[in-house]
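Hi R.,

Here's the chain you asked about this morning:
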Amino acid sequence: MLCLPPRSQQRTRVQKGHLFASLGHQGTALRESPLKVLLVDDESALLERLALFARRAGYETATAQGGEAAWEILNSGRFDVLVTDLQMPVLDGPALMARLPGLERGAPKVIVITGYATLEAAVDCLRKGACDFLKKPFTMEEFTAALDRVAKKPAVAHVEPDWEKLSQRYSLTRREAEILKAFFLTGKSNRELAENLFLSLHTVKSHLKSSFMKLGVDSRSRLLGLLREF
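And the predicted structure, written out as tokens:
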């Protein structure tokens, strides 16, 4: 018999060593042909919890405790989405992602999760091909929303955006486009961008804030995700 936690605890956040969360998520309606998700982490309890909620959201799941085990599974079947921890022994998340282009059955779209996230790490993963980045602790609602969001994204080559088209669509100024391009290509901090472009820190911050509003994003990771798809 499955015991549900009190309602006050149903949005408890997920992190290593603290895995109590709601079992009442309604999720996405079950699909006729469930998308296949491979979940990778070096902690078995977290894997079980993530798999439970992914299945409740209508996904078919497989789990791997570590990057090496994940690589073997990826070579034995095709998956639509790969959810991987960033830091794992032997074969970590970035190293696993680097192998994906070599898969004969095609590379899955990637969501990176980690409890040791920094802005630089998030930007680096997104620049290397991840579609989304979740920092622990996160709620199961946030997790399943990320799955749904990434599952809907088309598989696209990771090429540089069409800056002219982007500028026209979102009415970006020349300076805004210049700063966005520098950020996309380098992933540098505001201060580093200012130094490289010979601008004041205030100018970089102001133009990025304006760009965020025009593009409808609220973080650098979301910004990078949008730019990679354009």
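Strands lie at 36-40, 60-64, 81-85, 109-114, 132-135.

Let me know if you need anything else.
M.
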